[in-house]
């Protein structure tokens, strides 16, 4: 049985809310040393041979963190839009034992810095979609509006996730080629790509909710109403004609 607009709108709200939770977990990782935020990071690398760097470093949106004996992030002061740029003063402030790929280029700095504004913009539109999703359960306009806002959020979320994946995969490979073992943070990538998928599903559900009932209320519905009107008119005409024949008889 096809789903109603209420059901589709509710499912859209569910996936939108799930995406928001996952985005917030990734965005706030590194801002506090509390669970689960201290378990989420983009990249981990062995940097003990780099002067001024921790033995093991983890990059987040807010800082580069040490790693505790229990495998959790141990982050200091937070700086929004923290760049991934090992040789710069914002990270380690030296080129000694830093992979050559990071030296003399702004690629990693700029790519990682653009992630932060894009995720904020995407989160803004996604939250708006969550609020208008309440209207999506009862009106067609609300469904299409929620779908449009979710699509905007999806666009910026996709850009952020692609930038994150590209820059930190390249960074991982650079550290590994330099003999410094490194790995990606599985949770951060799982959260961001899952949030992207949830927003895509939300867009589809909201648009489907807007299309529900269109056949009954659109051209076919008007056609049926016109047919009913003319049928009723003909019926009344026949009845009037029979009355006149009866009166003459």
Automatic annotation (TrEMBL):
Organism superkingdom: Eukaryota
Keyword flag Membrane: yes
Region feature Disordered, mapped onto this chain: 230-249
Protein keywords: Membrane, Transmembrane, Transmembrane helix
Transmembrane segments: 7-29, 114-136, 148-169, 189-213
A Pfam family recorded for this sequence: SUR7
A GO CC annotation given for this chain: plasma membrane
GO BP, one annotated term: septin cytoskeleton organization
Name of the protein described by the UniProt record: Actin cortical patch SUR7/pH-response regulator PalI
Lineage of producing organism: Eukaryota, Fungi, Dikarya, Ascomycota, Pezizomycotina
């Amino acid at each position: 049985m096809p789903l109603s607009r209420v059901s589709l709108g509710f499912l859209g709200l569910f996936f939108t809310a799930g995406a928001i939770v996952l985005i917030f977990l990734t965005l706030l990782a590194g801002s506090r040393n509390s669970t689960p935020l201290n378990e989420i990071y983009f990249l981990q690398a062995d940097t003990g041979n780099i002067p001024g760097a921790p033995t093991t470093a983890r990059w987040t949106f807010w800082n580069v963190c040490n790693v505790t004996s229990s495998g959790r992030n141990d982050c200091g002061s937070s700086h929004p839009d923290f760049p991934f740029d090992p040789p710069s003063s914002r990270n380690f402030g030296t080129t000694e034992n830093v992979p050559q790929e990071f030296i003399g280029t702004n690629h990693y700095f700029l790519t990682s810095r653009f992630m932060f504004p894009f995720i904020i913009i995407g989160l803004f539109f996604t939250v708006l979609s969550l609020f208008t999703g309440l209207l999506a359960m009862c009106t067609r306009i609300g469904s299409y509006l929620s779908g449009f806002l979710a699509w905007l959020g999806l666009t910026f979320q996709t850009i952020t996730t692609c930038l994150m994946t590209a820059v930190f995969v390249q960074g991982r490979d650079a550290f590994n080629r330099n003999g410094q073992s490194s790995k990606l943070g599985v949770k951060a990538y799982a959260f961001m790509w899952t949030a992207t998928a949830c927003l895509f599903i939300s867009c589809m559900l909201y648009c489907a909710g807007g299309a529900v009932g269109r056949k009954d209320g659109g051209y076919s519905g008007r056609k049926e109403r016109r047919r009913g009107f003319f049928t009723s008119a003909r019926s009344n005409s026949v009845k009037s004609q029979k009355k006149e024949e009866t009166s003459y008889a």
